[in-house]
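Example record

The entry below shows one chain as it appears in the dataset: sequence first, then structure tokens.
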Amino acid sequence: MIRRIQRTCVLLALVTGCAHAAMVVRLSEVSDDVKIVLIPGNEACTAGLPADVYGDSPGFRKESDRVFLRRLNSEKELGKYLVAARQGGGIYLHLPYFHPGDSCGDVTFEIEGKRILWDGKSYSGKLRIDGRDVFYKSVFFTNESDPDMSDAAYFDRAIPGPAVRRLKHAFPVISDYYRKDLGVEAVQSTSAVVALTHNQGKYFGYGGDALNLIRITYDNPNPLPEDIADVFSRTYAHELAHKAQHPSLFENPYGRYLTEGSAEFLKLFVLRESGLIDAHQEDGLVRNALQECAQHNSETSWLQKLSGHTTFYREPYDCGLVYYIASYRYSGLEAKAFVQLLLKALSADIDYSSDRRRLCLLYESDCQNVMITDLVSGGPGFERARAGIESKKKVGAR
């Protein structure tokens, strides 16, 4: 769960005439920082400002009682989401980290930038956002003179032109399939920020978040991968799949495997059905996941790995995909019928099928699918399940 920041501050309501004044948190770009200006709803209410509202948060510097700076590029921090970072020619902010807290009364965020991306729409100049609407959400803004930006996406100018053209073709195809064919309406209020990042962090490779902004980045490329358009498209399809998942899934003991694995499965299904990959490519991605998952097989069960924090970073993705491949191939269902049941299960409908105990789409305690129970047990059980998976049909078989 995201950390909703709690602060100690002086209630505006305690100041005469300020009972219902809303504080404005104005955010803008200043060199390599985000400038944060706190403005009381009534300018006479200066005593109502927080004494040190961001004092216990790393990366914030106090300039005055009303003005703070937040250094960009926060990849070294331990927050669940990227806090504040330069992405291409703009700035990505996760707004909950900038909220002054419940005790400060009503809050309005004011974003200043030539172009702003928020909740599936782009804006110019200035945008006001109700503080009650920012949790689990991020904003992107840029002061570039001519950014490559629309309601749907921002593309970093550093990404090669041929790759951007391919992405501009693929992204609408993917989002339309989720929304129109699979009925995932949450896709409609999302935009993508696609960028190459250059910072002082030690992380190299792909990263991202699946919030109201689908952030897709490649950090510190050296050199830039030739298949970046393919990988970015696949990342986009994966991140959009999270929009079909109920938050309660993340509380499941196997949550990481279920959420990342089902997103990988839906990614392959959507890419294949929309014509962005063919059967050979799909089969190659499945075989690669099987091989990668097998490399981390041990006598330790998946649950023990999760509880002991010994899971390799890619395991929930690769092994999670293998989990849903196993369920699908064991089900005997056509791909589209299986996906409809999967979407129902991901919506937290525990009665998604009368055959629930055999499908085990959420690894229920009464799961009777031997291939699945073998798989998650690790060791020889995993190898038996792997052999069974490899003997059956492909994901997209009709």
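Notes for this example: Confidence is low (pLDDT under 50) at residues 1-19, 394-398. Residues 247-390 form one domain.
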